[in-house]
Specification:
Layout: H1 2-10, H2 18-39, H3 48-68, H4 71-75, H5 78-95, E1 97-99, E2 102-108, E3 113-115, H6 117-135, H7 143-161, H8 166-182, H9 187-204, H10 210-220, H11 227-243, H12 254-257, H13 269-303, H14 307-331, H15 349-367
Antiparallel strand pairs: 1-2, 2-3
């Protein structure tokens, strides 16, 4: 009997999606190589590629640990996770570390690192909100339930907005929208929310930080924008346009290597990729791997019979898709600059670690998608 129990508990690993992990690791490795190129010649940033390797190793370990835990342990604790997220975001506002005129990080001086709670929240929100929707599925047609869901996500969004972090706030809104749409929100509710949303945007704009307003006005009306505000956007376009089909070669990008392109290891890493590796070996490789990762995640959402598991996977896929679309869009001047990084490719410890946590959650759902193996 004991032997049978052990076999039952370990058998779920046969559903572990090795193809998903392989794509994630390939994209992460590609990102580390491009970070190394982006920071070459900048002594202040020379440790970043090594740091990213360490975060990747930590991320893989955490992913395996998370995958080994039944995801229903997380969904059953969704209120505790939600409360922890809110407390962490409040702590950021009260005692967070300042950086670039924003307060988004919690400093951990004992171990010498900073963590960004909103980065963790973008992965944990699909867990908590997924269970929230599953518990209230019988109320999905009630407008009171829609309002309750808005309040649920509105609290963390408001805390993130005042850090200020407009890009992450919009990301959270996108996760809410896609997940509640999947849950079956009536179209009439969407129409009402659209009107409310337009009014909210008009009301909120005056309260945006100066640099956030400048990013939006620069995008809408570039002719009247300050030259300094346009500089990095134009350099990104030059980088992408000059890369052509084949690129200029690794470590040979002029805009990045000569310092014309700023924040090239985070916000504008896609421009570095395209300039040096070209359309074929740069842009298409990154977008192809990202598309494959999204497909494997959505496959899990389709396979699982558990509504909460389905909502979680779709929420995590939304995070990856939205960040990818916005980051590439701002590199090619299709959307305003928001500060959202390119998943798995851009530099960032909190970002990379939380993405691996998300992949671990998806794996946990997949490994336990068969009812007879629940437990």
């Amino acid at each position: 009997m004991v032997g049978n129990v052990n076999v039952g508990r370990t058998s779920v690993w046969r559903y572990f999606d090795i193809w998903l992990v392989a794509a994630v690791l390939l994209l992460t490795a590609y990102g580390i190589l491009m970070i190394r190129s982006a920071v070459t010649g900048a002594p202040a940033f020379e440790d970043l590629p090594g740091d990213q390797v360490q975060w990747a190793v930590i991320g893989v370990i955490i992913m395996l640990v998370v995958a080994s835990v039944d995801y229903r342990v997380l969904t059953s604790s969704h209120w505790y996770i939600y409360a922890g997220l809110i407390l962490a975001l409040i702590l950021v506002l009260v005692a967070g570390a300042l950086g670039n005129e924003t307060r988004r990080w919690i400093e951990l001086p004992v171990i010498g690192i900073r963590i960004q709670p909103s980065e963790f929240g973008r992965i944990f929100l699909p867990i908590t909100f997924g269970q929230f929707l599953a518990n209230r599925s019988h109320r999905i047609n009630r407008f009171s339930n829609t309002i309750a869901s808005l309040i649920y996500v509105g609290v963390p969004i408001a805390l993130i907005f005042v850090e200020p972090d407009l890009g992450m706030s919009v990301l959270y809104i996108s996760v809410w929208f896609v997940m509640i749409w999947l849950a079956g929100l009536p179209l009439s509710h969407f129409a009402i929310l659209a009107v409310l949303g337009i009014g909210t945007i008009a009301a909120v704009f005056p309260f945006l930080a100066d640099y956030q307003q400048e990013r939006i006005t620069t995008f809408v009306n570039p002719e009247d924008a300050d030259e300094d505000d346009l500089f990095n956007i134009e350099q990104a376009q030059i980088s992408i346009g000059s890369g052509g089909w084949w690129g200029k070669g690794y470590l040979n990008g002029t805009q990045s290597q000569l310092g014309f392109l700023r924040v090239q290891h985070t916000d504008f890493i896609f421009s570095v990729v395209t300039e040096e590796m070209g359309l074929l070996f740069g842009s298409l490789v990154v977008m192809g791997l990202m598309g494959f990762i999204l497909w494997r995640i959505m496959r899990v959402a389709w396979l699982t019979p558990d509504p909460a598991g389905k909502f979680m996977c779709v929420g995590i896929a939304t995070v990856i898709f939205f960040q990818t679309a916005v980051n590439i869009g701002m590199n090619v001047r299709l959307v305003p600059v928001t500060g959202l990084t390119l998943p798995f490719v851009s530099y960032g410890g909190s970002s990379l670690t939380t993405l691996f946590i998300g992949i671990g959650i998806v794996q946990s759902v997949l490994m336990r998608h068969r009812k007879q193996e629940f437990g």
